[in-house]
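User: I'm preparing a small set of examples for a lab meeting where we compare how different chains pack in three dimensions. I only have the primary sequence for this one, and I'd like the structure in token form so I can line it up with the others. Please keep the answer compact; I'll paste it straight into my notes.
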Amino acid sequence: MAQFNQLAENLSEKIIVWHPKLLVLPEHIISNNFNSQQRNIKMIVGHMLDSVSNNTHRIVHLQYQNSPINFPDYANLGNNDKWIAIQNYRDEDWNNLVEAWKYGHLHICHVIKNIDSSKLGAIWQSALNQEITLEMMVIDFPRHFDLHIQEIENLTKQ
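Assistant: Understood. Below is the structure token output for the 158-residue chain.
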């Protein structure tokens, strides 16, 4: 589990670095610069909050439910855009959103450090009929985090 401890530590460091950077972004940058999916920074941070929430639940479920499990798949089939719209991240208080982002991500780091290694092969059946193990999901989480941090960084330079 040393690999997961290091993964969680690396992710925690990125969170600590990015938290103050996010807090000081001006309103016109977070609201008016859009990526190719027509998401502004507030919406991207909200999507990251949805991702950390859903993945935390998956990690927990995969450690006590019979495998494979069919967990609701918010990320595929366009559902993540529905989550963003329904929660109206465009009008969310920025400080509240960033704090939720920070603490949600710090919490998943804690959860990752405490995974039962005997459950790493537990399978989640995605909406695209992919079999994703707990181990695969956790290893991929930082890639998704980094992808969106890079998007945010690019949008701050527009």
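A couple of notes for your slides: The chain is about 65% helix and 5% strand. Residues 134-156 form the longest helix (23 residues).

User: Perfect, thanks.
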